[in-house]
Design goal:
With about 110 residues, the chain is mainly alpha-helical. Helix content is about 45%, strand content about 5%. It has a two-stranded antiparallel sheet with strand order 1-2. The longest helix has 14 residues, at about 20-30. It is globular, with a radius of gyration of 13 Å. The relative contact order is 0.16.
Amino acid sequence: MSGDAVLTQAIDPASDRAVYKQIADHLREAIGRGRLREGDQLPSEAQLMGHYGVARMTIRSALRMLQSEGLTRRTGRVTKVGLQNFGSRGTKRAAQDCGDLICTNCHDEQ
């Protein structure tokens, strides 16, 4: 899937939520809604930087967050969707909290 089809949201500069978390939320939502599926390649760091207008470290923080949740995996220089933990307790809890399939606004990382 092309990066253009996935990159449809913008950062909310007025939000109290950290920018890297907002980016992770957008990518997580794309995975949850099926715009990115198991094995699909995420947009490159350069594409994400261009779309969001942020530094590479911000993008890497967002990607690390998704990897730590088990939603993505890094193979060489490419990040792909790997859903080994999709539907884990945290994701199910988020769905119960607000009714959205993939919502991280109801619970922040501890």
